[in-house]
Design a protein that fits this description.
single chain; alpha+beta; de novo design (two linked rop proteins); 2 domains; 8 helices; 37% helix; disordered C terminus
Amino acid sequence: MSEDRLFRTDAVVIKRADSGEADRLLTLYTPHMGKIRAVAKGARKTTSRLGGHVELFTLTRLMIAKGRNLDYVTQAETVRSFIEIRDDLDLVIVASYVAELVDQFTENRIENQALYALLLSTFQNLPQAADTDLLLRHFELHLLSLIGYQPELHHCLSCRRELEPVTNAFSAAAGGVLCPQCAGSQMVRREVSVEMVKCLRFLQSNDYPQASRLRLRPELHWELETVLGETLRYLLERELRSAAFLHTLRGGRRQLAGGRPVSRQPVA
C-alpha cells in the first residue's frame, strides 16, 4: 500500500455500528479533518487488536488507509478510554446526546479544531461535573457558535437596539432575542427572563471551568433547556433520538426530587 494512502490521526469515536460478520463501522471526529467514517475490520472478534481501542467515546490514535468508498483503520492505540463514562448509564446517555449533536450538525471532512476541542473537553469534564445539565447547556451554546448559529443575546434582532433588562422574547427561527416592541413580528417566540438572558451571555463568553461556578435555580435550568432545545430542534428539523432518552432520565430524577431538577453528584 502506497504511503500517500495512509494517514495518522487522533480521533474521538462518536458513533459505531456493526458491519458484516465481525467489522465495526465507525464515525470519528478528528482535529484536522473533522468528521470521517472508517471501517475497523474484524474489530468485533475477541482476538482483534483493534476492538478495545475503538470503543464508543474513546479518544484513540489511528492509522487509517484511504479507500475508494470508505477508509479503513489499520492500527489503533487508546489515548484515553473514558471508561468512567461507559461504566455509568447516566453518563452514557449524556455523552450519546453530545456525540449525536456533533454527528448531526457536521458534514464529512470539514475541519473544525475548536469543535474537536469542545467535544474532547466536554467528555473530560463530564465524569466530574456536579451539574451535568449546566455542562450540556454550555456545550449546546458553544456548539451553535462554532457551526455558525450563535444566538444574538445583546441586541434586538429586529430593531438592533441594545436589549433592556426586561422580559424579552426568544425566537429560535430568528436566532436570538427580540425586544418587547418587536416580539410581535415573530409568530413563534417564547418570553424569557432577564436572569435567563444573563445566564446565556455568561455561558457564551466563558469556558466551562468558569461556567461551572454557576448555581442555578431549577426554574432557570428548565428555561435554559427549553430555549436551547427549541433552537436545536428548529435547526435540525427533528428531535434527536438520544434527546428522548435524556428527557426520560431527567424526568425520572425530577419525580424522585418531588418535581425539582436534580444535579448529578461527582463520581467518587
